[in-house]
Amino acid sequence: MAENRIEENRDGTIIRLQGGFYDVMTTQGEVRSRARGNFRKRGISPVVGDEVVLHIESETGYILEVKERQNFLVRPPVANIDQALLVVSAAEPDFSAHLLDRFLVLIEAKEIQPIIILTKMDLLQGTAEAEVRTAIAGYRQIGYQVIETSSETLEGVEEVRPLLREKTSVLAGQSGVGKSSLLNALDPTLDLETSHISKSLGRGRHTTRHVTLIPLADGLIADTPGFSNLDFPHEMEIEELRWCFPEFVARQDTCKYRGCLHLNEPGCAVKKSVEAEEIMSSRYTNYGMFVEEIKNRARRY
């Protein structure tokens, strides 16, 4: 008797890339799949988060189509994200407003909702605690949601859970800030590998090696490899950068000149707000540094 062959097409979401295979989640379970050979010729590279059409042959899947993306992050490589949980540590490694602002710019540029998750709050004390709490108040005043957490004491962990419901989220942050520890605190059965901070380097080891979409709290969350450096994309221009600072956007209509870059223009409402301490000076300083970075990149290319 001839063996019954099952052939059908299914919709699904790529949740993992591993060893040249794509693990695709469908309503009928996970299917290990390969991509069509002509994807490379067409310049298509499927990533985690992509919505795809599969052709199933006896439990083996072949990706026929990658559907149009809602959005796409290059680093970490993940598509169709509803929100980004930007994980920054209060200590070990020290809180970095510069790195946080860099993350925020990249997320704002993609029009993805950012949520700031501050980890290791239990390690704060003294002057460092006062400085971090002042910074937190500043970001909240801008309108960003900030959640203070500790994976050791479980402070704030339950505040994260309802944010994940029916959302596809990306968890992004520097190496060693506690992304995997936060996920383990939300669901201990995950048992994700974590690492301690190197005292000599001041950063952690990359314990997450691949982008993976994890079902969690009635949603999907991408645990991503950590990194200590984050470059702006080549296509980002200075004119776009000013739109990635919500507190600048809120004041731009009162600047003297339309299209004000908030640098050296007279009658700039943003600069006046910085002088009046209505805008965080650290944010404006970082904006200026990012402008110079984009200018220098343009000169190189």
TrEMBL record:
Cited Gene3D superfamilies: Nucleic acid-binding proteins, P-loop containing nucleotide triphosphate hydrolases, Probable gtpase engc, domain 3
GO MF, one example: rRNA binding
GO terms of biological process kind: ribosomal small subunit biogenesis
Gene Ontology CC annotation, any one: cytoplasm
Ligand binding (Zn(2+)): C255, C260, H262, C268
EC number: 3.6.1.-
Keyword GTP-binding: yes
Record keyword RNA-binding present: yes
Domain of life: Bacteria
Primary residence: cytoplasm
Cell compartments where the protein resides: Cytoplasm
Cofactors required: Zn(2+)
Residue intervals of the EngC GTPase domain: 79-228
Pfam families: RsgA_GTPase (PF03193), RsgA_N (PF16745)
Domain CP-type G: 70-230
Residues holding GTP: T119, K120, M121, D122, G173, Q174, S175, G176, V177, G178, K179, S180, S181
Keywords attached to this entry: Cytoplasm, GTP-binding, Hydrolase, Metal-binding, Nucleotide-binding, Ribosome biogenesis, RNA-binding, rRNA-binding, Zinc
HAMAP family: GTPase_RsgA (MF_01820)
Function: One of several proteins that assist in the late maturation steps of the functional core of the 30S ribosomal subunit. Helps release RbfA from mature subunits. May play a role in the assembly of ribosomal proteins into the subunit. Circularly permuted GTPase that catalyzes slow GTP hydrolysis, GTPase activity is stimulated by the 30S ribosomal subunit.
Family, per entry: Belongs to the TRAFAC class YlqF/YawG GTPase family. RsgA subfamily.
Subunit structure and binding partners: Monomer. Associates with 30S ribosomal subunit, binds 16S rRNA.
Protein's name in the database: Small ribosomal subunit biogenesis GTPase RsgA
Gene behind this protein: rsgA
